[in-house]
Amino acid sequence: MKVIVSHTNLDFDGLASMIGAKKLYPQAEMILPEKLSSEVEHFLAIYKDTFPFKKSKEVNWDHAQQAVLVDVNQLSRTGKLKTKLHRLDAFIIYDHHPITAETVPFTEGDIRSTGAAITLLIEKIQEKSLAVSPFEATVFALGLYSDTGAFTYDQTTAEDLAAAAWCLQKGANLSVIEQYRDIPLKKEQQHLFQLLLDRTETIEEDGIEIVISLHEQQNYTGQLSMITKKLLRFTGADSAFAIVKMEEKVFITARAVSDRINVLPVIRSLGGGGHNKAASAMVKGATAEEMARKIRQQLYEIVAPSITAEHIMSSPVRVVAPDTAIEVVSKMLYRYGHTGFPVVENDWLVGIISRRDVDKALHHGLGHAPVKGYMSRQPITINKNDQLEKIQELMIEEQVGRLPVMENGELLGIVSRTDVIQAMHGNKKHSQNVSGIARVPYKKTIATLLKRQLNPHIYELLTDIGREAEQRNMHVYLIGGMVRDLLLGRANEDIDIVVEGDGILFAEYLQRQYGGHVRSHEAFRTATWKHPCGLKLDLTSARTEYYDFPAALPKVEMSTIKEDLFRRDFTINAMGICLHQSEFGELIDYFHGYQDLLNKQLKVLYNLSFVEDPTRILRALRFESRFGFTMDRQTESLAKESANNLLAVSKPRIANELIRLFLEENPLFAIDRIDDLGILPFLLKNRDSFESMKQKITRLARATATLTENSVPLSRSLWTAYLFCLTPVPATEACWQEVHNFCISKEDHKLLNDLQALIEGASLDKQPLTALSDWHHLFASMQTEPLLTYFSLVAAEQGIDYLLARDHLNNGRKVAGADLIRAGLKPGPDFKQLLLEAEKLQLDKPDLSPETIVKLLADQ
Ligand code: CTP
Helix, strand, coil: what percent of the chain each, to 5? Predict the structure, then answer.
């Protein structure tokens, strides 16, 4: 195991460098020092769950062999960690501090004097073309800005600025940086700051704290805006006004951190200008106190109504019961991408369990233990009117990541760190959900489109179902690929229906009304109803998680269509159409799928989507190829980051996706994208060079196209040939075995065995084949698919002509046994040979009639 560590009293550059190092060494564990600087502590109070930091006691140091030191190059600066690090035998170092006698010998890394250590890691990340999310870029930039004093310190290098430019290109958010970085003041500025700090007057306006501070002095001191900013930081207020009279002029500087305050109108009224959160004015011939009075009078106008828990909470809340086993909770956390659950008993909130608690219990082998032993009891709760600022404060002070929202003893919702972050960042979301989730879905009536585009039988069936649902007071929805294809104007007859209720009971009811046949799967509460007209419909219950985790929930979950849609792969596949009569034809779109469809974009709904189901990465390629869509930047980087999870997927499941990619889509596009996303190493151990793979696939695809254009039927087993094209030449036994492991039918295995016999028999190398009959002599008994592959691999163009001619012959009038008998030949063991000879003659001389051919044979 590798560990990533930095110096004690960790600052932003150290923090950023640790995260940078984790990109380079993804398997390594990031260990926080025991002391953090106050700004990093403040930052991590909110962003703790965003990165997988560990504490020293959470790792098994016996397994640690190597350490990556960042922003430090001597062990004495790593605090208590040094006793553990002393025992390790190898070090990698990325640092910008000078090398001294105490520098640990290192085997890999970079020590160079740049303004910030993160610059060195960014250069390495660029070199390896690793994907970086906008949030990671923000943290990197934060390290750069703070360690270089916003690029003003002497040590700042051109490399630091280039690194910062790259961070901005990657989407770094400057307002977050602005919020956290610090710049030191000169002596007289520090003095003024102290004076102002001592004189602050705090005013509260609808939950917003505003500080006003005034002073009068003779000399002019610059940097008032920096001083005001510091004032804001030190007082923890939401806004600060510094009013300082210097050299007969009053300088007023205002700063705000909360989105709820706009200081500009007050400053404008004093003749100044600026931005909503940073503005200043200068007034001559007045006193500081006069200015302060004017400002106080206007404060109520500049504070916007507050964001409260009600606006940002998630609701309904997924909960667990006190007796739920830790391992079940762990699965639920993973599946839903949550970081914790409230624990509820008889409708009463009794505790909170977090991912950290669960991981700890699992670490000690307590997966079977009930959650009640590990939950935090008497959780801190809030009510729906509590303001965002208070929620933020509670999270920081109490170090809690989620706050249940209660009303009259009932659990109304929950506010997590993610909700707070999202509210703070406006539309820019850095965690969990990639796409914005609307509390109320976007709706659009597409009833006419349904009628116009659907096959009339299907349309009638759907209206019948809607009517039946309405009569039973149920909500039913058409979902999945059919909805997407309807909007794209493409045919699709896979009817998937979600029932808000029990899918099996509804299917059985439909069968009683309309006949047909129902096959149900109890475990998943799904049913397939075959209508008497032959159409098949899949019905699912929108309450599946109840059945997945029967012990977990104290009462039947309130899962709805939104929950069901949220679990799906891409926004374009996560739309539903209401079928129940009262809303028939309403498109339900919580995740902006319709917009993404118009923008030709593929977006996952949540960050763990590919981790949960890595086959979705291959599905994404299928949709890219089929519709000409592209993954958005974040989805593509998630796909890259999750590609290694394909190793854990069964080969047949991967095969099901590859079959479709190679046979239904453009196989060259598929292989290009598979390579772009770095998937190849997670599909096959034995691989050819990319160029060679491409050449083979190009030839095979061209030959396949020639045969299909000439209506030669080809079996779906041909996909194994495409997979084989990815393996090296010559293929070793291990290569063949690896491809065999993916096979899902006997035909797949047979194709590979035949192909192996052809390649290893090297039939084409032995003798020149000039006439079609020569080819037939060698290959008559072989099936088309292995031959097609073999000829493509060895670039034998004439072989493809032979396959076309052979197919033509098979579909035409061939000489048969009866023809030979009619010509007076006696049936016997050599008949088979005679028929082969007849076929060879027919291939070489297609103009001769079968009768002439028989005559020729009889005369021989
Ligand atoms: N689905 C998913 N994750 C998967 C497979 C499927 O979320 N790994 C969901 C998607 O919402 C999908 C629906 O299940 O639309 C139906 O799946 P399927 O029929 O396999 O795919 P389609 O989207 O219909 O694609 P295609 O047209 O290629 O069959």
Answer: 50, 15, 35
The residues that bridge with 526 in the sheet, in sequence order, are 521, 540
Q: Which of 143, 164, 181 is the last residue of a domain?
A: 181
The residue nearest atom 26 of ligand 1, judged by CA position, is: 481
CA atoms lying within 13 Å on the CB side of residue 856: 16
- Ligand 1 contact, 615 CB (< 6 A): yes
With a cut of 50, say whether residue 32 has pLDDT above it: yes
On whether both 393 and 294 belong to a single domain, the answer is no
* Radius of gyration, alpha carbons of the chain: 35
With 50 as the cut, is the pLDDT of residue 559 above it? no
Residue 72 lies in a domain: yes
pLDDT(553) > 50: no
Task: Indicate whether residue 573 lines ligand 1 (CB < 6 A).
Answer: yes
**Among 628, 626, 574, 622, which residue's Cα sits nearest to residue 599?**
628
Residues 458 and 585 in one domain: yes
Quick one: 115 and 257 in the same domain?
Answer: no
Pocket test for ligand 1, best of 536, 573, 608, 658 (most atoms within 8 A of CB): 573
Phi-psi region of 70 (alpha: psi -120 to 50; beta: other; left: phi over 0): beta
Sheet containing 495-499: order of strands: 442-445, 586-589, 576-578, 476-479, 495-499, 536-541, 526-530, 517-521
Q: Are strands 278-284 and 376-377 parallel, antiparallel or unpaired?
A: unpaired
Is 95 inside a domain boundary? yes
In total, how many domains does the chain have? 6
Tens of pLDDT, residues 294-350: 999 998 888 887 788 988 888 778 889 999 999 999 988 877 778 889 998 887 899
What is the distance in A from the centroid of ligand 1 to the CA of 715?
Answer: 24
Of 181, 206, 234, which marks where a domain is finished?
Answer: 181
Ligand 1 atom closest to the CA of 664, numbered from 1: 28
Task: Name the one residue in this structure whose structure tokens are 């940078």.
Answer: 20
Of all atoms in ligand 1, which is nearest to the CA of residue 616? 8
Does ligand 1 come within 6 angstroms of the Cβ of 481?
yes
Note whether 413 and 293 are same-domain residues. no
Q: Which of 619, 635, 646, 658 to mutate to test the pocket of ligand 1 (most atoms within 8 A of CB)?
A: 619
Same domain, 453 and 570: yes
CB-based contact 343:321 (threshold 8 Å): yes
Query: Is 383 strand, coil or helix?
Result: strand
Q: What is the CATH number of the domain that holds 406?
A: 3.10.580.10
Domain that holds residue 240: 187-302
More confident residue, 187 or 489: 489
Give the confidence band of 13 by pLDDT, cuts at 50, 70, 90: very high
By alpha-carbon position, which residue is closest to atom 9 of ligand 1?
568
Report which of residues 92 and 765 the model is more confident about: 92
650 is a domain residue: no
Alpha carbons 819 and 799: distance in angstroms, whole number: 29
* Same domain, yes or no: 71 and 119: yes
Residue 102 lies in a domain: yes
Is the Cβ atom of 568 under 6 angstroms away from ligand 1?
yes
Question: Using CA atoms, how far apart are residues 216 and 250, in angstroms rounded to an integer?
Answer: 8
Note whether 583 and 479 are same-domain residues: yes
Residues 166 and 47 in one domain: yes
**Reported pTM:** 0.56
